[in-house]
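Quick bug: NfeD-like C-terminal domain-containing protein output formatted oddly.
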Amino acid sequence: MAETVLGLGAWSWFLLGGLLLGAEIVVPGASLIWLGLAAFAAGAIGLLLGPAWQIQILLFALLSLAAVMAGRWLAARGGAGSDRPFLNRRIDALVGRTFILEGAIHDGTGTVRVDDSLWRVHGPDLPAGTRVTVIRSDGAVLFVERTR
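Here's what came back:
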């Protein structure tokens, strides 16, 4: 095995890079792609400069580290913001909005109508018909205060 790798020389890095990129398709997590790209870079440098195999391994290790760090940085940057940021988080979109109490808040609990549904609210005791503003949410419960 060692003779085969040494016989292939820098081409063994391209083989390793291809195997890593192929494994990326099967293994979830988007981490092997960076190692595969580092292997391709080590192979290219190996072909151009022809360093000893020990230097190539060290070069691959350093390039892998740099590629993984670059990948993490790119992932942290994220993509463009969504045009629908509250999709699947409807309750978060209600914070800051004003509604009229459908059912009076009695003992800290009441209801408001939001579009075609009723939502449970918690807040100070207020009569039905009072305008309230949602200040926060917890699960499916809205916390409100009287609108000033």
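Actually, after a second look the formatting is fine. The chain is about 50% helix and 25% strand. Closing.
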